[in-house]
């Protein structure tokens, strides 16, 4: 994609925001009317595609058919990362805790390098940081993490049988909040392991899974966040697309998953500022990200248009907490996943804590 096409893409985001609502003040002063809870699903898969720039999804028309399938639901290409960090572990910690990094209720995790064994989110925060894994597991759901980077052992360590909280809801499902985890850097390997677990005959009914595809980020750190057609970065995104296609096909072919599974897809950051990195939280190529919600058989809907009054399209801006109606953020994902499962929000969470982000118009069953 040429520089001109990139700028045209982001200019379009601004214009679309203006067309949807010309007055942010009006939205702030008129909260949305109460709407029914999301339809409940038995399985929710939270997919994070590490380093996925929004414009990567439109750089080569018709080259990513499975991302396009996922966009047949409520979605936006103008969501936001954490406002202060555009790196991997702080943003994934935001996803699983539905908290931002900074502030009095922030999760405080800022480290992004390899994590020492036994180091936990709670130890850094100075208090227990409940997660989507806690809420789902304590209510009897099977939980899993399929990660593309070894440093994701942070979550296994933070929510293991030693460091996880006691289950306050009878019956006791234990302190180990993640039932199964695997690390595989390849989209093929990770996708195959995920499908094997989702489709096994003895799988529990209620399930929450976090799957993290690392390939686009790993390639871009070597070759750059190049969205020119045919670039190594876009080839890595295409490899994830193929893995997503196999996942969608497996869901739609399985009577126990079809119509009962929701996928929430987002990312930890974009990239390209600087060219082979993404550590500039004030640069739009790093902080503008996609957020897609698929429930099978839906129609494409703009996530901001669907959530007038509770989420506001920021155009090219980088809103801060307290700046009025918030944008859609990747940290909405944890509490959205629980809402889709019919479960309450994460205790102590601050992003989507009211579970007011609407994504589904009607039951799909």
Task: Indicate the topology.
Elements: H1 3-20, H2 24-29, E1 43-49, H3 65-70, E2 74-80, H4 88-97, H5 121-125, H6 132-138, E3 142-147, H7 153-158, E4 180-183, H8 187-199, E5 207-213, H9 215-223, H10 232-253, E6 261-266, H11 284-287, E7 288-294, E8 301-302, H12 303-306, H13 333-340
Helix pairs in contact: 8-10, 9-10
Low-confidence stretches: 17-36
Side by side, the strands of the main sheet go 4-3-5-1-6-7-2-8
Give the second-level CATH assignment, the architecture.
Answer: 3-Layer(aba) Sandwich
**CATH topology tier name:** Alkaline Phosphatase, subunit A
CATH secondary-structure class: Alpha Beta
Q: What oligomeric state do the depicted chains represent?
A: single chain
Structural class: alpha/beta
- State which percent range the strand residues make up: 5-15%
Largest sheet: 8 strands, mixed
Rg, Cα atoms, Å: 19 Å
Compute the number of strand runs: 8
Form type: globular
Output the number of helix runs: 13
- Assign a percent range to the helix content: 25-40%
Distance between the termini: 39 Å
CATH evolutionary superfamily: Alkaline Phosphatase, subunit A
Order of helices and strands: HHEHEHHHEHEHEHHEHEEHH
Number of domains: 1
Q: Averaging pLDDT over every residue, what do you get?
A: 91
């Amino acid at each position: 994609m040429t520089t001109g096409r990139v700028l045209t893409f982001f200019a379009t985001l601004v214009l679309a925001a203006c067309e949807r609502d010309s007055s942010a003040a009006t939205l702030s002063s008129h909260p949305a009317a109460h709407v029914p809870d999301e339809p409940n699903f038995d399985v929710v898969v939270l997919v994070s595609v590490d380093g996925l720039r929004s414009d990567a999804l439109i750089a080569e028309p018709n080259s990513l058919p499975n991302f396009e399938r996922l966009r047949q639901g409520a979605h936006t290409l103008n969501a936001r990362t954490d406002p202060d960090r555009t790196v991997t572990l702080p943003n994934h910690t935001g996803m699983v805790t539905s908290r931002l990094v900074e502030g009095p209720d922030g999760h405080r995790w800022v480290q992004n390098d390899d994590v020492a064994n036994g180091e936990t989110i709670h130890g850094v925060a100075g208090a227990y940081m409940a997660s989507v894994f806690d809420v789902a597991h304590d209510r009897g759901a099977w939980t899993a993490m399929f990660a593309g980077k070894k440093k994701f052992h942070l979550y296994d360590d933070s929510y293991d049988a030693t460091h996880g909280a006691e289950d306050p809801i009878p019956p006791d499902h234990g302190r180990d909040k993640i039932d199964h985890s695997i690390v595989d850097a390849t989209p093929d390997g990770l996708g195959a392991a995920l499908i094997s677990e989702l489709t096994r005959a003895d799988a529990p009914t209620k399930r929450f899974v976090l799957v993290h595809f690392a390939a686009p980020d790993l390639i871009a750190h070597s070759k750059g966040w190049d969205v020119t057609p045919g670039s190594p970065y876009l080839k890595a995104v295409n490899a994830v697309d193929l893995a997503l296609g196999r996942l969608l096909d497996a869901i739609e072919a399985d009577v126990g998953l079809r119509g009962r599974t929701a996928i929430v897809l987002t990312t930890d950051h974009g990239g390209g500022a600087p060219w082979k990195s993404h550590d500039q939280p004030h640069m739009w190529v790093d902080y503008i990200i996609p957020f897609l919600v698929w429930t099978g058989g839906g129609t494409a809907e703009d996530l901001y248009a669907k959530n007038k009054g509770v989420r506001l399209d920021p155009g090219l801006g980088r809103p801060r907490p307290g700046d009025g109606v918030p944008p859609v953020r990747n940290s909405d994902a944890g509490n959205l996943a629980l809402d889709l499962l019919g479960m309450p929000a994460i205790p102590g969470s601050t992003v989507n804590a009211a579970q007011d982000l609407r994504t589904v118009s009607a039951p799909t069953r």
